Amino acid sequence: MDFDFAELPENDRYRLLSNFVGPRPIALVTTIDEHGCNNAAPMSFFNVFSHEPPLLILGMETRPDGTAKDTVANIRRSGEFVVHMVDMAIASEMIVTGINFPSDVDEIEFAGLTSTPSVKVAAPRIEESPCAMECKVSQILDYGRRTIVIGEVMQMYVRDECMDERGRYVRPEVYQPIARMHADNYIVADNQFVLKHPAELLITRKPPALPQLK
């Protein structure tokens, strides 16, 4: 099938892109409003963008009535936010934070999660997350109803057991983030395997042995 995006309705473009570009990592983003109220919201239009400088990118849409969501409004005002990775231990709580609450509701508290002070930004860190990245806004781009936020990572927290003894590499048997597929379907990184770099394959002259996936 071929799809002409110039002719395709917006909902169909979203369906195709989000169904086939995946799994997409989930950013559970915390901000703080002008009254000091915590805000948390998940988003799956998210990824790491660069390591030098260390940049993350978020894609957020306005509400159906055209008004900005709390996360976007708070980021524009404060110029900072915290991105948390999500594992199975907090998957249900992450979904709860996605409810369209009034702006004065603390989604972290409502979801049963614990807020703790960040190091370099005012927005709180969620204690239960295996990984959190404190970010300052580098650039904000507006495309109609879509806001693209590029944030520079200023500080990163990783739960101790997620790293090896040297604090250098992730332990895949411990750190197993979830990601979004399509609609309400998610996947967990609990079936990881190794593919060697092509240079190593040239030395052995053997094709990689792929595992039997579940």
From TrEMBL:
Obligatory cofactor(s): FMN
Cited Pfam families: Flavin_Reduct (PF01613)
Annotated Flavin reductase like domain residues: 21-171
Keyword Flavoprotein: yes
SMART domains given in the database record: Flavin_Reduct (SM00903)
A molecular function (GO) term: oxidoreductase activity, acting on the CH-NH group of donors, NAD or NADP as acceptor
Highest taxon listed in the record's lineage: Bacteria
Entry keyword set: Flavoprotein, FMN
PANTHER family registered for this protein in UniProt: FLAVIN REDUCTASE LIKE DOMAIN-CONTAINING PROTEIN, FLAVOPROTEIN OXYGENASE
Family: Belongs to the flavoredoxin family.
Protein name, as recorded: Flavin reductase family protein
Organism: Aminobacter anthyllidis
Lineage: Bacteria, Pseudomonadati, Pseudomonadota, Alphaproteobacteria, Hyphomicrobiales
